[in-house]
Amino acid sequence: xxxxxxxxxxxxxxxxxxxxxxxxxxxxxxxxxxxxxxxxxxxxxxxxxxxxxxxxxxxxxxxxxxxxxxxxxxxxxxxxxxxxxxxxxxxxxxxxxxxxxxxxxxxxxxxxxxxxxxxxxxxxxxxxxxxxxxxxxxxxxxxxxxxxxxxxxxxxxxxxxxxxxxxxxxxxxxxxxxxxxxxxxxxxxxxxxxxxxxxxxxxxxxxxxxxxxxxxxxxxxxxxxxxxxxxxxxxxxxxxxxxxxxxxxxxxxxxxxxxxxxxxxxxxxxxxxxxxxxxxxxxxxxxxxxxxxxxxxxxxxxxxxxxxxxxxxxxxxxxxxxxxxxxxxxxxxxxxxxxxxxxxxxxxxxxxxxxxxxxxxxxxxxxxxxxxxxxxxxxxxxxxxxxxxxxxxxxxxxxxxxxxxxxxxxxxxxxxxxxxxxxxxxxxxxxxxxxxxxxxxxxxxxxxxxxxxxxxxxxxxxxxxxxxxxxxxxxxxxxxxxxxxxxxxxxxxxxxxxxxxxxxxxxxxxxxxxxxxxxxxxxxxxxxxxxxxxxxxxxxxxxx
Length: 544
Hints:
Elements: H1 14-19, E1 24-29, E2 33-39, E3 45-52, E4 56-58, E5 61-63, H2 66-88, E6 97-102, E7 108-110, H3 129-139, H4 148-157, E8 168-170, H5 172-181, E9 185-187, H6 188-191, H7 206-213, H8 225-228, E10 231-233, H9 244-250, E11 261-262, E12 266-267, H10 268-276, E13 283-288, E14 292-297, E15 310-313, E16 319-325, H11 330-345, H12 352-364, E17 373-376, E18 393-396, H13 404-415, H14 417-429, E19 436-440, H15 449-458, E20 462-465, H16 472-487, H17 495-503, E21 509-512, H18 516-531, H19 533-542
Parallel strand pairs: 1-6, 6-11, 6-12, 9-10, 13-19, 19-20
Antiparallel strand pairs: 1-2, 2-3, 4-5, 7-8, 13-14, 14-16, 15-16, 17-18, 20-21
Helix pairs in contact: 3-4, 5-9, 10-16, 12-13, 15-18
Family: Belongs to the FGGY kinase family.
Protein name: ATPase
Domain Carbohydrate kinase FGGY C-terminal: 285-483
């Protein structure tokens, strides 16, 4: 049973809990959906809500308008309130706690009063190459293109007028949290994608703040970086209360009341770790959606900075190596939608769950090497493989066995192709050891298929729990529940203890071991994938 299967019949006390305002809300602004999950103290989902949206390419920059953020959040909360009424026959008027999560990194500059100075620039933008390289050299760390500090330096170097007016710099999660509480704060996991975190795990690195201040052109600015970055908080800390204005931002009907305690806002990587309980050394998680990232909690430092690996933290502040890819399931979704339309033309409507089950299941029957069929899912550029501008591409080796099964197997391999390239740097070159990788995201809802592909690709056992399809909204709701518990008279232990004792003690996991034939076939496929990357780069250069 997934969390979405919970009903008022399953939880007879849920209506009273909701009416008394004892539920915890997690809201996550993902790349294609805004999702809400409402949970009890044990993490059982009582209701959900969702809103579909898409980014826009405006003035050569990927963005979401802040008006779309507001209306999307409100539509998602309205959908959640409808689900509460339908399942439990009560109105959602009060919350015990809530937390906001969103896609990490990017650039959202505000003035001193919190008004936006420029359009939100998302993680998909790759025009910060020179700024990221300058910072990486100055800091002696790998600074990814999508990090907020790279975007800021890019704006400084470009002479953008708004830079001198900068009063606050935040992420999308931090922006929405500020609208709800009036506080400019971030959870340490999200903050670690803005600027490097100190070894203490609870603040920005003071030496690197000084190095930034010493860069050419920075000293002349009328602000210091330490003053414009959000305050760093760790999991469990009080991040403020929902204000009357914040309640109206979520629910303009006035039904939802202020007062709920809030958790530190987090990025989708951190909530993915929480949703899979992957917050201890020798564990990791893979979050798969429009983009994909693998998070591995480290036992010891890496040998040094690597371009493929980002250093971030768990929501509790522990060091994490992150492999991020700009592309994952987006192209696969497009292909499956095409097959769904074909079925409609034949007079058969196939629901999405059935469609994915049938077609991904067919992919599982393909040859282990996908028969020489190569798929590049690059809706945007991909830094892990050195592709500056992506074009989705399917190519076949001359002797390829082009069957439906091999095509779909190649699509599954392609969804994780760039991730597999990046993980080689971590697992093989750096020798990081993993006992298990936890996986979550919609692609894993079809039991065993993408899970086995990933296990073979990483040569690591992959575990999927009953929260696999819930994603970060559920993880953020758990962080909100942890914050409420910490603030209560009973107090709370560490985040790890809370998850182990209160949330996951009764959860069932399905773990798949890597298959010898599957590993060999994937290795052969990945070798061809690497060799043909010049074709993908040429596609980006020659196709609009």
